[in-house]
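Q: I'm writing up a methods section and want to include an example of the input and output format. Could you take the sequence below and give the corresponding predicted structure tokens, formatted cleanly so I can copy it straight into the document?
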Amino acid sequence: MDTRVAVISIIVEDNNSIETLNQLLYDARDHIIGRMGIPYRKKGISIISIAIDASQDIISALSGKIGRLKGVSTKTAYSNVITHMEEKHD
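A: Here is the clean output for your methods example:
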């Protein structure tokens, strides 16, 4: 399975979605390289960046699930860094 490095940018406008968002990120913790969150209190939003190294399918699925949350917007930027992993056979 090939993996890619990407950044998922998230803007949270509805605080009621934060618990579900955190659960989605927790579920993807094995692929997440780092996370930065900035509360922008003046505007009442949160800005979150997630650095991730995972397969294209995992990244797309996570971004899609996040984007379907009420009051949450997301965009994903992919690097051209692709790691080719050999599958293990038992």
